[in-house]
């Protein structure tokens, strides 16, 4: 029996897959638990169109992330921090500070949890990595200056 899975089923497939399964398995397990529905031409066409729309959405997200990454890599942000005469900071500059500086200086909002930044304890040039998408990351130049 051909069914369309409505959710991930271990050993059978993932949601949206069209599978050929045993009639008893479909009748007694998949259909009563609403894990699948019988495959009909109309439903299969609907699933294909949904996947196509999702693929276009994913491509648009990757394109937007790549454009943002190019913009972030071209710029350098400057973060003022209190420092001693030797250049040691009284605190540390962390990923939250980088996220706030990106928003203030470039007008770009990046979630702080997506920014990998080794805490800076000295004045100078540092580098942060922003994971904008699963396929795209941007290297950001961070300049910590004494305030």
List the helices and strands and how they pair.
Blueprint: E1 2-5, E2 18-20, H1 23-30, E3 36-38, H2 41-74, E4 76-81, E5 88-93, H3 95-106, E6 115-116, E7 120-122, E8 124-133, E9 136-146
Parallel strand pairs: 4-9
Antiparallel strand pairs: 1-2, 1-3, 5-7, 6-8, 8-9
How would you describe the overall organization of this protein?
With 147 residues, the chain is an alpha+beta fold. It contains 3 helices and 9 strands. It has helices spanning 23-30, 41-74, 95-106; strands at residues 2-5, 18-20, 36-38, 76-81, 88-93, 115-116, 120-122, 124-133, 136-146. Strand 8 and strand 9 form a beta hairpin. The mean pLDDT is 93.
Short description:
37% of the residues lie in helices and 33% in strands.
CATH topology of the largest domain: Ribosomal Protein L9, domain 2
Individual helix count: 3
**H/E topology pattern:** EEHEHEEHEEEE
Q: What is the CATH class designation of the largest domain? A: Alpha Beta
Q: Quick one: overall form? A: elongated
Features:
9 strands, 147 residues, Ribosomal Protein L9, domain 2, Ribosomal Protein L9, domain 1, 2 domains, single chain, elongated, alpha+beta, 3 helices, 33% strand, four-stranded mixed β-sheet, three-stranded antiparallel β-sheet
